[in-house]
Write a structure and sequence with these properties.
The protein is mainly alpha-helical. It has a domain of about 130 residues. It is built from four helices and four strands.
């Protein structure tokens, strides 16, 4: 156990180190190219929680390992190949696949007059447009709910590699994880003397 004199000496050494002039320009996070997130970007994401008290420990950040959910299935099944549906919630909304529609019309063209083909193409397009009109709100609702989930999935992936490197203590390319509350540096105009 250190003596009071030793403790005071350590405290004074700490104060001396802290009083050294440090250039705050070296600590700008704006230009950082690695992993950098702020609490405001993470708050409210599904599966992300802060400051969890667990038995024997305190967890500052906990991220669940979520699975991506697929978009709802298009109904009726016969229309499915005629719609282009992205499984990326940030992707384009569902649209009619004009090439597949034209192919289906052409596949059934044998022995039909041009008028019959045009009528069948019109009926088929109308059916696909109705299916799209019913499906688009379902896809939009899925995308709105899935976007934050995908952000959490990306966050988990972004932290998985550095966490693995930290645990394995790779010395060739050492990693450092900094968790902070924030430091601000600024310049203030000189105070005017009272009196």
């Amino acid at each position: 156990m250190p003596t009071p004199a030793e403790q005071l000496c350590k405290l004074l050494n700490y104060v001396v180190e802290q009083s050294k002039e440090i250039d705050p320009h070296g600590y700008k996070l704006v230009g950082h190219k690695g992993f950098l997130r702020h609490k405001g970007h993470l708050a409210g994401l599904p599966g992300v929680s802060f400051n969890r008290e667990v038995e024997g420990d305190h967890v500052w950040l906990h991220i669940e390992r979520l699975e991506a959910q697929q978009p709802p299935v298009v109904h009726p099944e016969s229309v499915r190949p005629l719609l282009t549906v992205s499984d990326d919630p940030n992707g384009k909304p569902p649209t009619i696949n004009d090439a597949a529609l034209a192919h289906r019309v052409a596949a059934g063209a044998a022995g039909k007059s041009p008028e019959q083909l045009q009528q069948e193409a019109s009926i088929l397009r109308s059916t696909v447009e109705k299916a799209l009109a019913q499906y688009a709100p379902l896809w939009n609702a899925w995308a709105a709910g899935e976007k934050p989930r995908r952000t959490t999935i990306d966050l988990y992936g972004d932290l998985f590699s550095p966490a693995h490197q930290l645990e394995s203590e790779e010395t060739a390319k050492p990693q450092e994880l900094v968790w902070g509350l924030g430091v601000t540096a600024g310049r203030f105009p000189p105070r005017k003397a009272l009196g």
